[in-house]
Amino acid sequence: MDLNEARDIINRADEQIVAALKERMRAVTEVARYKQAHNLPVLDEKREEKVLERVAAMAGDDMSDMARELYKHIMALSRDYQTKMLGRDGKIRLLVLNGPNLNMLGIREPNIYGKKTYADLTAYIRAEAEKLGADVEIFQSNHEGALVEKIQSALHHFDGIVINPAAYTHTSVAILDALKAVALPAVEVHLSDVSAREAFRQVSYAGMACEKTYAGHGFEGYKLAMEYLCRREEKHD
Ligand code: DQA
């Protein structure tokens, strides 16, 4: 076997190892949630010893020590991960995204969007999130790519997305694809009742990746969306 062939094999093995690690960490997240719900400590020495014995046996005589050492590291990393997860006090983490021109609230078409400003909206969202016991991050951009990147970066950092894509609602397949890619539970919000407006507002691409839409409730739509995501999370815990 030449060097390149051997390296190809190593690369393929690494792909499998990383995929398996990711799957393991997903299951660890479930264990962390269970432990939290049942007030159990992160460290379970007996379970860890069993895992070490099992992997050592699987690895066979010549590699059993290596397997043990490797799994000691993996389980230490898992514990850190679980501690971090539990450290957020079980709070649901929500990302609220606002698209173009919403920063102009209060000035833009007040007959449609009202007189309250974007700062009023963010203060409202923060106050409602606090009442729900949720952690919230709010992000507004006039740029499609910035919204796509924010959605992508939400993976593993947020439990749900509330999105008012504004005008991109009706045009952006990129935002739809980003929401589908991260596959986080998402809820669409519109301040105005888009269903009663122009024909071009009747299509919502982002909405196709959302579990719910609240339109025409003004600021309250954001509260309804956050409530929905919190209730949904409770059911899944
Ligand atoms: C909006 C509705 C969209 O059609 C429009 O382009 C917006 C705001 C709303 O919140 O009502 O910018 O998303």
Topology at a glance:
Elements: H1 3-37, H2 45-59, H3 64-87, E1 93-98, H4 110-113, H5 118-132, E2 135-140, H6 144-153, E3 160-164, H7 173-182, E4 186-190, E5 212-215, H8 220-236
Helix pairs in contact: 1-3, 2-3, 5-8, 6-7
The protein binds 1,3,4-trihydroxy-5-OXO-cyclohexanecarboxylic acid (DQA).
How is this structure best summarized?
It contains eight helices and five strands; from the N terminus they run αααβααβαβαββα. By secondary structure, the protein is an alpha/beta fold.
Can you walk through the features of this model?
The protein is of the alpha/beta class and 237 residues long. It is built from eight helices and five strands, in the order H-H-H-E-H-H-E-H-E-H-E-E-H. It has helices at residues 3-37, 45-59, 64-87, 110-113, 118-132, 144-153, 173-182, 220-236, and strands spanning 93-98, 135-140, 160-164, 186-190, 212-215. Strands 2-1-3-4-5 form a five-stranded parallel beta sheet, sandwiched between helices. Helix 1 (3-37) packs across helix 3 (64-87) and helix 6 (144-153) runs parallel beside helix 7 (173-182). It is elongated and about 75 Å long. 24% of the residues are buried. Residues 101, 164, 166-167, 169, 190-192, 194, 201 line the site of 1,3,4-trihydroxy-5-OXO-cyclohexanecarboxylic acid.
